[in-house]
Amino acid sequence: MARFHKPTGLWEATKREPTGKRLSAYGKTPEEAERKLAHKLAAAAIERATAPIQARPTLEEYFARIYAPTLAEHSYKWREQVDWAASHIMPALGSILVDELGRHHVQAFLLSKGRDDRTTVVVSPKGTPSTRRYGPLSRSSVGHLRKVLHAIMEMAEADDLIKRNPVRHVELPPERTRRVVSAYTLEEASKLIEVAKGTTWFRPLWLCALLGLRRGEAFGVMAEDLLDGSLHIQRDVEVIGREVTTGPLKTLASDRWLPLPEPMATEIRSWAKRGHLTLWKGRLVRPEGLTHALPVLAERAGVRRLTIHALRAGFNSHLADLGCPEEWRKELMGHAQTGVNERHYTRYREETKREWLSKLWAEYSSLVCSSTASGTADGR
Questions:
Q1: Strand pairing partners for 120?
Q2: Among 108-122, 156-170, 276-290, which range has the highest average pLDDT?
Q3: pLDDT single digits (tens) 207-261
Q4: 142 plus 191 within the same structural domain
Q5: Which residues pair with 97 in a beta bridge?
Q6: Which of 264, 258, 276 shows the shortest CA–CA distance to 222?
Q7: Which of 81, 158, 318, 342 suits 88 as a labelling partner, its CA being 20 to 30 A distant?
Q8: Global pTM value
Q9: Are both 31 and 106 inside the same structural domain?
Q10: Do residues 185 and 321 make contact, with C-beta atoms less than 8 angstroms apart?
């Protein structure tokens, strides 16, 4: 649900229905607008539930009446992804009967999304409409569309509405250009960490840069996650509406143990005064705050203005430069699930991962020491 303060002084609350249609309500306060919208959404849901369903439903009708109600059992992130995908899928394919939707329909739809520019009408605060043009969707975004379509048609197949899922063998459009992933060097990461000391962002920056954690993972680390020198990455912090809460990790492989060298473990123990290591005044911190703060920190540190993910990408690059094999880097970053046979060598794997993290820490420490020494020399 999104809220906007209109030029007229009223507040608008708006949300997209599972069908892709957007509903809005207005009020003198944000709470009044949200309350009115909740009534509208409830009425629309009752209308969809009580309307007779055809023996051969369209994709839009099947999605709204059969698939959408099952979303309550899924994670918030999946519901958000389905909501976004439906806004693209339903206007293009929603009127086609489920049993007539073929692979050629889906293939043409995905190719157009990866090729065509998109336009939308945007209204300025002064009420002036203008047309804004966007480029085609990225290959990963088109992949999300295919994933959601596949899930909808998989349920239709289970309901015996179709004999086989037409999305199963649909191919993604080719990559237009090879994406270059930017990464912070270890020296740049150390400068960012240094300027962030004493701020809310020091600890999550440290965790992202030196342990390769994702942003939400860094904000979800708790004091009890550090056990016998190993850090358990087991939760994510996400924002649902206006509430900051903890949730499941991105994948099963993301749930991992990081055996830390003693200096790293000592540093994290020094933070563990209460609950979440990244708490601020007793409350969970909104992860996007770090995204907004990073350009300011980068300017102070005199480094490039990149994204939070560039710290995680840099962690991967640093280990690669030290000679760490890809297999170990995947495990440390939670990219791949450990094989069954490999689990018999848990102790060996823990020591090996700790060894690579020790090498990274040694490189980081030497950079910090040399930076401190040069700063002292300049002061003289």
A1: 132
A2: 156-170
A3: 999 999 999 899 888 888 888 889 999 988 887 767 778 877 877 788 899 999 9
A4: no
A5: 58
A6: 276
A7: 158
A8: 0.62
A9: no
A10: no
